[in-house]
Amino acid sequence: MTLRHLRIFVAVCETGSMTAASAQMFIAQPSISLAISEMEEYYGVKLFDRISRKLYLTDNGRRALQYARHLIDLFDEMEQGIRDQDAVGQLRVGTSITIGTYLLPQYINRLKQVYPSVRVEAFIGNSGSVEQQILDNQIDIGVIEGVSHSSYILSESFQGDRLAFICSVEHAFAGRTLKELAEVKDQDFILREKGSAGREIFDGLLAAQELAVAPLWQSASNQAILHGVRSGLGISILPYSLVQESLKKGEIAEFKIKGMALSRKYSVIYHKNKFLSQSARTLVEICKGEEFPGNSKTG
User: Which intervals hold domain HTH lysR-type (predicted)?
Assistant: First the structure.
């Protein structure tokens, strides 16, 4: 006995005929008749009296109808309850420091417009640590700068940012465009820690030109790096979105290198074997700027 049998039985009872039930359920009439016959054979009772080509519920049929409706309602309630749990459940998100500071709050606010009751737990670290959390199933999705390096992780890229070389306003490089990257190799650098996406890009750039720098400071704190640069302790390279306010205020200066534009994509990442709930998939779409239920794109 299956839920399909019960749904067919209820449809026949409510419409009064197998023909009408067939039309309502888009099921061939012989299949409707077979399902009713199988129910009667299974329980060993007649559910309908067939008189003058009309169907009349027997006492057993009326009792069966009560149970069938109750079971169908329970099943539908279970289905809806499980689906609704996605809207009131928990979503674990890991982000790199820059994204967690500047972008994640607006992403979560937009997600809350669709799923007001969803609980979002955020973990902020460098891109490498976010990848490891994905692999260890400590978070559901990650939002990082650059792309993942693991074959077990799927990446969906979106928008991007550029990296800016920065120095104090009194530094000799302030406002200049240098001829080549080699001009910075003897400078004191204040850099992000290894494992961060920005540091990885910069190290790759140096390696490509067979250059190396020995950082004076290494820090996971963007603000500490900004303070160090502002104080004239060294130069750095950070995401433009992070330093643009300080540049506008004249607290630090930017310098450029001829022919060199450093940009990178952001990526939403998740384990390739991970089932993404609807709320998680919606957050992915929000990050990528795509349309999602309850949202319409604006220019």
Answer: 1-58
- The Cα 70–Cα 162 span in angstroms is 60
Domains of the chain: 1-81 (1.10.10.10), 88-156+263-286 (3.40.190.10), 161-261 (3.40.190.10)
* Pairwise CA distance, residues 228 & 174, whole Å: 15
Residue 255 tokens read as 């310098």
Measured between alpha carbons, how far is 49 from 265 in angstroms, rounded to an integer?
A: 70
**Tokens standing for residue 141:** 């999705």
CA dihedral (106, 266, 274, 75) positive or negative: positive
Alpha-carbon distance of 17 to 224, in angstroms, equals 77
* Cβ-proximal residues to 251 (8 Å cutoff; 6+ apart), any chain: 169, 230
- In this prediction, residue 86 carries a pLDDT of 61
Q: How far, in Å, CA of 253 to CA of 166, rounded?
A: 6
Greater pLDDT, 147 or 22 = 22
**Residue 239 DSSP code:** E
Between CA 75 and CA 88, with CA 274 as vertex, the angle to 5 degrees is: 50
SS3 1: coil
Summarize pLDDT for 67-112 with one digit per residue, the tens: 999 999 889 878 877 766 666 678 999 998 888 888 899 999 999 9
- Which value, in Å, is the radius of gyration of the alpha carbons in the chain? 31
Contacts of 96 (CB under 8 A, 6+ apart): 124, 125, 126, 127, 130, 143, 144, 145, 196, 197
Buried-state track 274-286, b at ≥16 Cβ within 10 A, e below 16: bebbbbbbbbbbb
Pick from 237, 286, 267: nearest CA to 144: 267
